[in-house]
Design a protein that fits this description.
By secondary structure, this protein is an all-alpha fold. Helix content is 85%, strand content 0%. The chain has 15 helices and no strands. Helix 5 packs antiparallel against helix 6, helix 7 packs parallel to helix 12 and helix 14 runs antiparallel to helix 15. The longest helix is centred in the middle third of the chain and has 51 residues.
Amino acid sequence: MGQLVALGAYVYQAVLALVLLLLVSRILPPQEFTHYSLFVTISQFASIAVFEWIRFSCSRFYPGADEAAQRSVILYAFAACAGLCLLAGGGVLASGIISAGIAVGGALVAVFQGGTELHLTMLRFRQDFRLFSTLQAARASLLAIGTVGGVLLVPTLSGAVAGMLAGGLAYVVLARLAGGSLAQGLRRPQRHLVTKYLAYGGVSAGASVASLLAPLGLKTLITAMIGSQGAAGALLALDLLQRPFVLVVSALHAIRYPELVASYDREPGSPAFRERLGGYYGQLANCSLVAAAVILCLLAPVAAWLVKAELREAFLLAAPAVTILALLRAWVQNLLPTPAHLAQRLRPIIGLAVADAILLNLSALAGWTLSGGSLAGLLYSGAAGAAVAVMLGTPLFLSMPFRWPRFTLGSALAALAVAGIANGGTPQTSLPVSLVVFLLCIPPTVATVTALLQRQDASPKMS
């Protein structure tokens, strides 16, 4: 039951993030929203660059046989990295590139994102799903309230950053009261654990940094080519339509990956592990395909109701390509490199991420040039580059034997094909198409929910 509560927390966070983006896009002028979108992406990039190696190592090694020893490494590493992040923010402030409030605020937001993600990861791998779910939902709510309050009071990027920091501070106080202190029983980090964390976490985080360079480069390219005013609609599509895939990946990773790691460490190559790995793959692939199909069917009505009129044309032009791009990148980042993460094969992890970032941005630039300056040409070419990255990662994906359900995967692929053909150009509202897509989505959805319910009794034993 705790895992289903955790899944609900992810759904709540994703829905709230979508609502927040739509509200901010309506309150801020287009140019300020472009700045807000870039700020969020850059702060996420900074957080991943500085803290993600700790989180990746935590997800692979924590709690281990000696929880206190693992926790000591994690907390000391976080403290050191937080200091480096704040120093970097001070360097940006001293350079005078941006205002003092944005420089300091960006560094503090990055530290907050890195620290809270790390804390929530520790709770998840300790199987404390109820506290994890409560804090995850609280973090999403407080950040949303703070951000909306900030932009309502001061409709600029500065107002948004101030609101984010206020919400973050409130969450830190709440997490300390609800979760207690993590400093109990700390001791000097063991050298061999630090070395193991640096080796595995460093490469995995490098892959995440490379992966985040892809959307950051794409946003920068779009803004440079069509200006901050014209880019707002396309950037809203990039920010908004990647969220459902982040939800799918994060939720399934949260509730299935810990038991997958435990099973691999105990019985790699066994029939039971192959079935568990195939089940994880099937759920991730099915849910992401269903998400893409549903998004394509809902683009026209949702845009008409929720997207501001001056952003709607660019949003609808970009949205179909962005949906396919987000689907492919979810696979490249999470599905395809799973065997390498389980086996701690470091080179394929970073190699695939770097290839994805390079192929996406180079193909997007080529598409802009060859299409004569078309936004759709840029985005569809970027999606083609992501498709090439999927093909490059397929041998890695197949390197570890697994068994997965083919019928539900075929149904999900058919749903995406129908939705893509109907909405790949200009998204439109079509009840017959939506009905067909809905019916095709039923088998993979039912199979995923059934599999998750069947795992509830066994999952606590997997830790």
